[in-house]
Amino acid sequence: IPVLTYPEALGIISKDKYTIAITGTHGKTTTTAMVAKVLMDAGLDPTVIIGSFLLDVNPSTGSGRRTNFVSGRSKYLVVEGCEYCRSFLNLHPNILVITNIDADHLDYYRDMEDIVSAFVELSHKLPDDGFLVVDSHAENIQAVVKQSRAQNGDFETLRLPDGFKLHIPGAHNLLNAKAALGVAKILGIADEQALASLASFRGTWRRFEYRGRSKSGAFVYDDYGHHPTEIKTTLAGTKERFPDKKIVVVFQPHLYSRTKQHLSGFGSAFKDAERVILLPIYPAREEDPGDISSDMVVSEIQKNGGQAELVKTFEEAAQKANEYAGTDGLIMTMGAGETNKVADILTE
């Protein structure tokens, strides 16, 4: 019996489809979901494969249960491509969106140049009539653009209508929406229709997902952010949406290698949080090297003037977050590990 990896299976599906691949260090899940919603609302009936659950469910998909897969009948495939281990090179894109390129997965990549080379290699898989859709002003993107053999589109230059708002906050999500709008333009979907879809977009599982209220009355949100850039932009968006609320963050670092490589970045990423409660590092695929810990993240945050502390259990994290947030605060559980379990406790 042939055994395929997930990326290899995606490659087989992609080969026979008109593939719209959404990639980038940050924002690819949200952007994939945005593009999927725009195409579904436009009646293009795409197949969708994404790294999180879709919160917007097209009536044609059935019961409304959460899913990360939609089986469409058209030629279109909307797929999230992950750069880890260059796995996205299995895809055969016709439209390639790169949201941004940042330093991550340095347990696999040697350095930033190595990361950029993977995106360049993927862009070379575009056919002559393919499209590369990027923010040309984003750091590290120009190296890809200069070596592109396809038609290039700059989504950052698109202008959203005055007063346009998303359900999810932050300037970074408006950029994601512009990327989706760029794809819509390529496919001939009218701006008015695409913008209406984006305005009603509700997000995805664990991406600024509203979970309810705590027993004390605080708002509870859950977010997958696990890189300093993601944390900083998500909290900035949260502060923008809720300027008068006290923000309490429960954060679980993900991977020993990432925590060590971005230690100073984590120290300055929480400036919009009044308090940060740390859980022990979520190891995922790694063994504890013994030279990095959540205690060190606490120290870095404190060096930057923040209030941070370490707890050992989800229950203790929930208790302290509830105490600090009070009746009118906001609790954000963050991380790619199991911090959503803290949100479960807070809202049960």
UniProtKB/TrEMBL annotation:
User: Which InterPro entries does the entry mention?
Assistant: Mur-like_cat_sf (IPR036565), Mur_ligase_C (IPR004101), Mur_ligase_C_dom_sf (IPR036615), Mur_ligase_cen (IPR013221), MurCDEF_pg_biosynth (IPR050061)
- Gene3D superfamilies xrefs: Mur ligase, C-terminal domain, Mur-like, catalytic domain
GO molecular function (one): acid-amino acid ligase activity
Q: Which residues form the Mur ligase central domain?
A: 22-152
Residues annotated as domain Mur ligase C-terminal? 206-337
Q: Which PANTHER family match?
A: UDP-N-ACETYLMURAMATE--L-ALANINE LIGASE, UDP-N-ACETYLMURAMATE--L-ALANINE LIGASE-RELATED
Q: What is this protein called?
A: UDP-N-acetylmuramate--L-alanine ligase
